[in-house]
Design brief:
This protein has one domain (about 5-10, about 20-455): Amino acid/polyamine transporter I (Up-down Bundle). The chain is globular, with a radius of gyration of 22 Å. The chain has helices spanning about 5-15, 25-35, 35-40, 45-80, 85-95, 95-125, 135-150, 155-175, 190-195, 200-210, 230-260, 265, 270-280, 285-315, 335-350, 355-385, 400-440, 450-460. Mean pLDDT is about 85; it is low at about 1-15. The chain is built from 18 helices and no strands. By secondary structure, it is mainly α. Keywords: Membrane, Transmembrane, Transmembrane helix. It is found in: Membrane. Pfam families: AA_permease.
Length: about 475
């Protein structure tokens, strides 16, 4: 690679870089906004596989998985402040083929989550009246959020601060409306409503899959690393505070829903928190949870659009996919072509009506990324040992968090096999065929100069290379 060519591409890349406008609160809103919807729907499917206590144990154990995940991704993300998050890490640590797969997995993780949001919004709107046609409202909502992302990330995530804050507040209202703190007046009847561990420890393993839904997407905070005013401050603060918010909210959600709804009904609910609110027979609480459910879906879809488009844009900028998607809007400086391209895909999956299938493919894509992330952390520490490069954040107790991440991710995939082995096989086959397409066809168009430009400007030569 000629030095003059590399310098030219680096200057071009810098000129087309995304604006640095985000602070810790925006990163919190991106992470929590994407994930909070998982407390309004999806997590309760774990009761089918593991029973009520299996779902609770999965909530806490998978919480440990995500604590480890946030630690390792934040360390690597603070050193590689590039749009694309785990994709950008794979780009420098694993090479083009692995980076292509990680980028594709990230896109489908968030596109599928956006589709699940659309499904739930449609189901909630139907509770207003059997005659309500949900499709126009869902389409208008997704179009409005796409337009907002089109106009700029700062405004998008500023809105997410409001939407996420209101949605989390409604969970707190539902919790305190039950007077859970009073043994005499509490409406919560945990012992009567729950069904324990009907399938033993195997059920707990099976419930891990849907325990992820409490936290799935918090790792997407690193996708906006390039747009942070101070990456070393915004990423750790926003991600850690966001994770604490989710752990508290997830525990409260399980507690309230399991005390207000029988396990059988809770397991099959499309919107468990809203059903729990209706079980209180308090009009104000029911109305607030209706609003909270809709707003959580909108906040999640909003964040998913931002995350998926950043991954798609980063891949296009590095020529792993056609660079037509790497164009930034001349006025708003947003990856508008990537944003618009992914919208119809999310809508198409959203209106399949298969919530558990959409959720499962999103979880599978995420788990595959987590496995590769654990491996990347081990390689990152070997390539850039402590003291060799400035870190904005350092994951403590290495390699323990990485080992826990790999072990719990593997256990979750094993649990997913029970009932969803066809989904696992289909998903792996899809990514395998995509890899074949990349090697045979797309790799011929890979521009190595563009691919390495940003990293060559920010990272020193790693040890041993």
């Amino acid at each position: 690679m000629e030095k003059t060519d590399l310098t030219h591409v680096q200057e071009k890349t810098k000129a087309s870089a995304l604006h640095k406008t985000l602070g810790p609160l925006h990163i919190w809103a991106l992470g929590v906004g994407v994930v909070l919807v998982g407390q309004f729907m999806g997590w309760n499917l774990g009761i089918v596989k593991g029973g009520s206590l299996g779902a609770l144990i999965a909530c806490w154990v998978i919480g440990i998985l995500y604590i480890c995940l946030v630690m390792v991704t934040t360390e690597m993300g603070s050193v590689i402040p590039e749009s694309g998050g785990q994709y950008a890490m794979a780009k420098y640590l694993l090479g083009p083929l692995a980076a292509f797969n990680v980028g594709l997995m990230l896109v489908f993780e968030y596109v599928m989550l956006e589709a699940a949001d659309a499904l739930v919004v449609g189901e909630v709107l139907k509770t207003l009246s059997p005659d309500v046609q949900a499709l126009p409202y869902v389409l208008l909502s997704l179009l409005a959020l796409t337009w907002l992302n089109y106009r700029g990330t700062h405004a998008t995530l500023s809105l997410n601060i409001v939407l996420t804050g209101i949605a989390f507040f409604t969970i707190c209202v539902l919790l305190f409306s039950t007077r859970f703190y009073s043994a005499e007046t509490s409406l919560l009847r945990i012992q009567e409503m729950t069904n324990g561990l009907p399938y033993g420890w195997m059920g707990i393993l099976g419930a891990f899959q849907f325990g992820c839904w409490f936290y799935l997407g918090i790792e997407g905070t690193v996708l906006a690393a390039e747009e942070c005013r101070s990456t070393s401050r915004a990423l750790p603060v926003g991600a850690v505070v966001g994770l604490v918010t989710l752990i508290v909210g997830a525990t409260a959600t399980w507690f309230v829903c399991s005390g207000l709804l029988p396990a059988g009904k809770l397991a099959g609910s499309v919107y468990p928190l809203f059903d729990a609110a209706m079980a209180t027979h308090m009009p104000l609480v029911i109305h607030l949870l209706f609003i909270g459910t809709v707003l959580s879906c909108l906040a999640s879809a909003n964040g998913c659009i931002a995350d998926a488009s950043r991954a798609w844009y980063a891949m296009a900028r590095d020529t792993l996919i056609p660079d037509i998607f790497a164009e930034l809007h001349p006025k708003y400086n947003t990856p508008y072509r990537a944003i618009l391209f992914l919208l119809p895909i999310a809508i198409a999956f959203g209106f399949t009506g298969l919530l558990d299938q959409v959720v499962t493919f999103s979880i599978l894509s995420a788990l595959l990324v987590y496995l590769l992330t654990g491996y990347m952390m081990i390689k990152f520490r070997k390539m850039y040992p402590m003291g060799s490069i400035k870190r904005g954040y350092t994951a403590p107790l290495h390699p323990l968090p990485t080992m826990l991440l790999l072990a719990l991710t593997t256990a979750t995939l094993a649990g997913m096999y029970f009932g969803y082995w066809i989904n696992i096989a289909s998903g792996c086959a899809f990514y395998f065929l995509a890899s074949v397409w990349f090697v045979i066809h797309r790799s011929r168009y890979l521009d190595v100069t563009s691919y390495m430009a940003t990293g060559a400007a920010t990272l020193p030569r790693p040890r041993g290379y």
